[in-house]
Design goal:
By secondary structure, the chain is mainly α. The protein is built from six helices and two strands. Helix 5 runs antiparallel to helix 6. The two termini are 33 Å apart.
């Protein structure tokens, strides 16, 4: 494992051949300077939980609880939309400036098939196999 702040030099010096990051990280850390090809693998979903104290939540009346849940759902949807659009804007700007080239990744199913056993084993190891099954059941 390489520390995040050492990735630029690791790519530059051939210690690693690739990394993965969202557009904000690619832009901020200037990874495009040493690794100008960006494979669009769509292999990860960023989760940004909205946390609220259970004790405080239970102390609210039912109308306020409903309002908090509704606000959380709306904020989550809005946050996903903002982050996704900002990601696309950053990549568009970097590509237009000639700083990086997006490369379509055609082997996503093969990649998933290769990592599924690892994901399954890890989920079992941490006691999350039922959660993984529920996630995989979503179509």
């Amino acid at each position: 494992m390489i520390a995040y702040n050492e990735i630029y030099n690791a790519i530059q010096n051939g210690v690693i051949q690739a990394g993965e990051n969202e557009a904000a990280g690619v832009e901020q850390m200037k990874f495009y300077e040493v690794g100008p090809n960006l494979a669009i693998t769509e292999h990860a979903i960023t989760i940004r939980p909205i946390c609220f104290s259970g004790k405080t939540f239970r102390s609210l009346d039912k109308d306020l609880q409903a309002a908090v849940l509704r606000a959380g759902m709306e904020a989550g949807a809005y946050g996903r939309q903002v982050e996704s659009s900002e990601d696309a804007q950053k990549l568009d700007a970097l590509e237009k400036a000639g700083k990086l080239k997006r490369i379509a990744f055609a082997d996503r199913e093969a990649m998933k098939k290769a990592v599924d056993p690892v994901i399954t084993a890890y989920a079992k190891e941490i006691g999350a196999d039922q959660i993984l099954a529920k996630i995989n059941a979503i179509k």
